[in-house]
Specification:
globular; 4-stranded antiparallel beta sheet; mainly beta; 354 residues
Length: 354
């Protein structure tokens, strides 16, 4: 009886100690991991037409690089396609757009486990966003002039799809507070932004003026910011009031900065690129300097500054390379110092932070 009592007492004490240690560990860590890929960023490698060359690379905050995450986690799943265009998220899922396969592959955003493939009502899909339980994906359709570009609307409860015609040159997309914002610009063509009220399905178009083809679109603090350009002149940064849908202000880029692109806003600062250089300016500025923050070296014919982003005090650049072999991404400090060079897949075109 004494031995049994001692054993029970020891077991109870051990249980209390384990529970206490477990609670202390949870308190110290703040929160448990949501999955293998919840602390870091994804690089989307678009590939070159062969699905085997398209992939997703994960770079962890700990510096560990995981190549070809989708195939690693899902070796028996269907391919995600090639010419990968975009990854966008909701709270728990990541959506991978393939322009050539005309599909969106859905995975868990933290484990990258396969969930579904959506392949109806797409035609050259480009970029996506999520608003109010639905995903919205722009489609370039036949790529010719005319009002054939459309949105694929995905019900995220059952992955059924419908479409909405939204005009020509529909490209980048963002959303906030029941509205979806679409930049109608493609390599110097198109000069508008389209706004969709997701409750009423009413579309509103804002004309940016001749020569102002938007290539970047950002919603920030209830305002919309667009970077425009054509190949013959310098661009502008537009600020649009989303309450009135009116152009509130514009900032002209210096005449020396032609064909600017990749507008990013981080910590009240504008960042954008021209060729292989990065430029920045405070959002409160009325003028922009043509002195580059940094310039990197590239031998790529078509892939200079192929991807760009700024996050958590770092500048991220991807180079397209030769689009046949693995290429590189570069991490820079905000002062322009190179911090890291990372080998990724074929045609890295964008960064997506988890």
């Amino acid at each position: 009886m004494k031995k049994q009592f001692k054993f029970l007492a020891f077991t109870l004490l051990l249980s209390v100690l384990i529970t206490s240690c477990s609670n202390d560990d949870n308190d110290d860590s703040g929160s448990s991991s949501l999955g293998a890929y919840d602390n870091g960023y994804f690089v989307l490698n678009e590939g070159n037409g062969n699905p085997a060359t398209a992939s997703v690379t994960f770079v962890g905050d700990d510096g560990i690089v995981v190549e070809d995450v989708f195939r690693l986690v899902n070796p028996t799943a269907d391919e995600i396609g090639s010419y990968l265009q975009d990854i966008f998220f909701d709270d728990t899922r990541a959506f991978i757009i393939s322009g050539s396969a005309n599909q969106v592959t859905v995975v868990d955003r933290y484990t990258f486990e396969y969930i579904a493939t959506i392949n109806s009502n797409f035609s050259a899909p480009r970029f996506g966003t999520v608003e109010n339980g639905k995903a919205y994906v722009t489609n370039s359709a036949e790529w010719n002039t005319g009002a054939d570009d459309f949105l694929t609307v995905i019900d995220l409860n059952d992955y059924s799809t419908t479409t909405i015609i939204v005009g020509d040159y529909s490209e980048k997309i963002t959303s906030d507070d029941d509205y979806v914002y679409i930049s109608n610009g493609y390599y110097g063509s198109g000069n508008a932004v389209t706004i969709l009220n997701t409750n009423t399905q009413v579309l509103t178009s804002i004309d940016l003026g001749v020569g102002n083809s938007p290539n970047s679109i950002i919603e920030e603090d209830d305002d919309l910011f667009l970077l425009s350009y054509d190949y013959g002149s310098n661009g502008k940064i537009f600020k649009i009031n989303t309450a009135t849908n009116a152009i509130e202000s514009t900032i002209d880029l210096p005449a020396s900065l032609v064909a600017a692109k990749n507008l990013v806003i981080e910590d009240d600062t504008f960042y954008f690129t021209v060729d292989a250089s990065v430029y920045s300016a405070s959002m409160s500025s009325t003028t922009i300097s043509d002195i580059a923050l940094l310039t990197y070296n590239s031998t790529s014919t078509y892939g200079v500054m192929y991807g760009f982003n700024v996050e958590d005090n770092k500048i991220y650049i991807s180079d397209g390379g030769d689009f046949n072999s693995n290429s590189n991404v570069y991490e820079y400090s905000l002062s322009g110092s190179l911090l890291n060079t990372i080998t990724v897949g074929v045609g890295p075109n964008s960064f997506h932070f988890n």
